[in-house]
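Q: What structure does this chain adopt?
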Amino acid sequence: MLRWLGRNLSIFVGLAAVGGLLVLRASDPQFLAHLRLLAFDSYQRIQPRAHEDAPVVIVDIDDASLEKLGQWPLPRTILAALVDRLMRLQAATIGIDVLLAEPDRTSPAEILRAWGASLRAAPDLAAFHRTLDAVPDPDRVLAAVIGRPDAKVVTGFALGVDVMPRVPVVKAEFATAGDALQRFAWRFAGAVASLTAFESAAKGNGALNVIIDYDTILRRVPLVLSLDRGGGSTGPTLYPSLVAEALRVAQGARTLIVRSSGARGEASLGESTGMVSIKIGRYEIPVTARGEIWVHYARPRADRYVPAWQVLDGGVPPARIAGKVVLIGTSAIGVRDIRATPLRPDMPGVEVHAQALEQVLTGAFLTRPDWIYGLEVLVLALSGLVVVVLLRLAGPRLGAVVVIGAIAASAGASWYCFSVQRLLLDPVYPALLPIVLYLCMSTLSTARR
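A:
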């Protein structure tokens, strides 16, 4: 018995190493999870999403627009004229990717507040007030345009950690199937909402939040989030993102149908793995457990953008806007709404939302579904057993060939899943496995000589 154990000790060591790696995979330490993300980033750089015509346009308040129209933030009268012009060009919906949380600084009330001490010394204060009262309030002008019956405008808000006295308005309805979704969605304690006049007038209201990984790279965009509303509320409230609301309003839909693991019978052993898909109108969107979509970035294209000043100047052909989902945002350098992505370190935040919408409208999804972890563990265990047997039979020299072949096979399988199936399959642990097994088994073999 002892002889048999001695002859096969390397197998037991190899099996123990496989078990250790399975435990490591379950804990998934940050540095290995980061390597997995970097691998997925490299895939995107090698094979970005192919361009397909999608009805999405960015109306860009760029540096040239600020130079022509005024400093940031633009007066609300100009923003109202921009929205009005886009409506006349028959945009399918208009998403304002700008937080409108403060009153316009050019409004009469704000001017009186800012100039208060100087105005008290004015020689004819009453005449000045009469003149100021005749000036339309810019915020009311914009709210009136947003609230027109034919307008399909989506305003935005930002969720955060600080509790605010007013919570954003929920315009969308939610239908849920499966586990309680609030505990899976990204959860926030506070919010900064757009002015009540804008939220009330708009057809939709969505969160501007994006999810930035600890290495500052933006890889996922949430479609739903949750907010602890407080004030006696029974629990967190679900909110749609700007992307989800723009898609909903463009179709005239009312409800987001959110399916989670329990709805598909995937929690048969008591496991709850999170969200699976979100249906908005006719589009069913695969999402992560937390309700995000993985953004498969396409290369930058100038034709995604239309400068805001050209829209106001009348220089944009109607066909460029008609029937499109239009996002109003900014690429201006001083505004600093710039995000790092796998393809470039300086992508305007509004383009991230636009690219997410392009994916939904063209069906070019990049997925890492709820069952992928179970598949990866199974592959890791089975491949571990195969490599242990091969290394035992091959010996140290041929074992190196086995290791190289196993690494190549894992990398090739992961790349095939990405390039053909648009599936994110982890290449890190399957590549680490043969290296660890070779080191353990060859070290034991050398020590016994």
